[in-house]
Structure formats: C-alpha cells, structure tokens
Amino acid sequence: MLETDSKSLRSVNGSRRNSGSSLVSSSSASSNLSHLEEDSWILWGRIVNEWEDVRKKKEKQVKELVRKGIPHHFRAIVWQLLCSAQSMPIKDQYSELLKMTSPCEKLIRRDIARTYPEHNFFKEKDSLGQEVLFNVMKAYSLVDREVGYCQGSAFIVGLLLMQMPEEEAFCVFVKLMQDYRLRELFKPSMAELGLCMYQFECMIQEHLPELFVHFQSQSFHTSMYASSWFLTIFLTTFPLPIATRIFDIFMSEGLEIVFRVGLALLQMNQAELMQLDMEGMLQHFQKVIPHQFDGGPDKLIQAAYQVKYNSKKMK
Question: Residue 255's CB: how many other CB atoms inside 10 A?
Fold first, then answer.
C-alpha cells in the first residue's frame, strides 16, 4: 500500500509530506469497522488530538491502552507522540545530511538486503524500501559519529519506515537512540549490552533457579539467545504482528518490557529447555519460540506483566 500511494512516502520528485493530524483522517476509517474497532478509533483519535492534556492527566490509562495494542492506523502518530519526536529541529537537517557522504555507507549497503528479506517493502534490490532505509541509516551515522552504524539497528528503522515517512522515522530513531538507552547498547564497546545480559541473568537466577543451573551446566550463555532480544526489541525473534505489539509497549515504557517478555518466555519454556542440551536449546530458541504466539501476543504480554520486576534492584 505504501508503495502504490505516492503521497505516503517521499515521491520521486522530492516533495515531502509531513505527518501531523493528516495521519488520522476519518476518511481512511473504513466503513465496515466492527463496533469494538470503531470505539478504539474514536478513543485513540481523542487521545491524539488532546495529547498534552492526556499525557499529563491520564498517564496510567494511556499506558494500559498501549499494552492492549495501538490501532495500526494510529501507530505512526502515536509513536512520534510517545517519544516526543514531532517537532525536532534535526528534521530540517535531514535533506542536507543525505547530500553528505558517510564512512559507513558500504557497511549499510551490505546489510540492507538482509533486513526483512521476506517483507514486500524491502525485499527487491534498489526498491523504495531499501532506498529509504539506507537514507535514514546513513543520516544517523553522520549525526552520531561515535556509534556510526551498528548491525541490528536497521531492523528498528525498517519497522519505523513501515509506519511513517523517512524524515519522521529518522526523528523517532534519533529519539530512541538518545532517550531509550539504545545508543548505549549500540556503542562500539557494547558495554550496556553486557550490563543488560548481567541484569537478565540475575533475574533468571532469582526467578528460575533450576533453569539457571541447567544453563550453566550446559555453558549456555545468556548472550547466545538474548542479545538480539535487546538489540532489535524482538524484531528478529517474532513475526512482525507480535514484535510490533511489543514495540508499542517499548515506545511507552522503555527497555523494561524486553526483560519482562524475556523472562516470561523462559518461564513458559522452562520444562522443555530443562530436557535439552546446548545445541537443542539453540534450536528451540530459533525454531520453536518464534511461532508459539502465532495466534496473537496477548497471552505473552499478560505473562510479561506477571513477572516480578524490581526497578530499584535493576539499578
């Protein structure tokens, strides 16, 4: 749909469309919405229009609504609102950045084709999807020279581009890197990733002691299965509909959801994992876990919120 709708992405002559209230026009609401959907449309429409007020006064309700999933037509604008990316001065530099040359260009080009290789928007070589993905990654590598380009981040940018035009995706990505600790995860030393692995391991030891001992006896290190969870917010683990729901919550609550979902997954799979050796466990993480929630992510998200998470302890 994005490809056929010339207005939705930067069209070839470089005209640009800003996403503002235009993203939420009632005309795009198809007439055959079920009542439930219609109610959630009206509700989210109101939230978006009165965002400043709602955010201050009804923060808890917004959090709970996000956990139930943002309707997909609203994702673009709600994600921008959640991370305060709507009016960033850096947006005006975007077209200038594209004219510059980045030392990371070769690396970015090499990885573009491996990002969502099955997805229609990205799979064709030199397609519009690959082009805008390259643009945003390149622009970011010029703005943040210390991080430059880091493998894995393209999955996050790709998801943003499935929802919104490239300048908006660029602004949201800058916000995620700066305010959501992602930049720390992607720094060359990856020290923050090591910290997350350590915190997660301590959670396993505390909540699932038998599994912790089993992992140790098999030399099955946390980073073998969990680093991609943190680096791509489960985008390389689950099919998109499920990963996107987790990403909604990440936009609203930050990295805590990755710890919660990670532990919930281990709890649900503990019995099977206890029977397996290292090789078997790797297979289980790659082949079995991604399709456990094909019926929908609600069960997983509920389990994630049963997990006891102590933010003081994490600090």
Answer: 18
